[in-house]
Design brief:
By secondary structure, this protein is mainly alpha-helical. The chain is built from six helices and two strands. The chain has one domain. It starts with 8 loop residues before the first helix and ends with a helix.
C-alpha cells in the first residue's frame, strides 16, 4: 500500500486563507452588483435602501443551499421589513419576489420561490 505524504500545514493554511479572501471579495462584488441592479431600491417594495438600510435575501437557503447556489441570480437587495416578510412566508412578498425573478429571467430563483409558495398554499406554512 502506497502512503501519500501529508500536506504541509503552512501551505494548506495559506491556500485556505487565499480561498477565503477570494470568496470574501467575490461576495462583496456580488452584493455591490445586486445593489446596482436594483438602483439602490428595495427589489420588492421599491423604497430607497439608503434611508432604511438593506439586507440581502438569499432566495435559495437552508440545507446548505445558500452557499452552494449563492449568485447574483439568487440574491435580492431588500429593506429589513420586506426581508422579514419574505422569510416569514407572506404571500404578497413572495409574489413580488416571483415577479422580480421573472423580470430578470432568474429560473433558479423562480423555481425556489414557486416551491415555497406552493408549500404555503398546501400546508399553510413554510417548513
Amino acid at each position: 500500500m502506497t502512503e501519500f505524504p501529508k500536506p504541509d500545514r503552512k501551505i494548506r493554511t495559506r491556500e485556505e486563507r487565499l480561498l477565503r479572501e477570494r470568496q470574501y471579495i467575490e461576495r462583496g462584488q456580488m452584493r455591490h452588483d445586486c445593489l446596482v441592479r436594483g438602483k439602490y431600491l428595495c427589489e420588492v417594495c421599491g423604497k430607497s435602501l439608503a434611508s432604511q438600510g438593506f439586507e440581502f435575501h438569499h432566495v435559495c437557503y437552508g440545507s446548505g443551499k445558500r452557499l452552494q447556489m449563492e449568485s447574483l441570480k439568487t440574491t435580492a437587495a431588500l429593506c429589513p421589513k420586506c426581508h422579514r416578510s419574505a422569510h416569514s412566508g407572506e404571500m404578497p412578498t413572495l409574489e413580488r419576489l416571483a415577479a422580480w425573478a421573472t423580470k430578470y429571467g432568474y429560473e433558479e430563483a423562480l423555481m425556489e420561490i414557486s416551491r415555497r409558495m406552493e408549500k404555503i398554499t398546501l400546508f399553510g406554512e413554510d417548513r
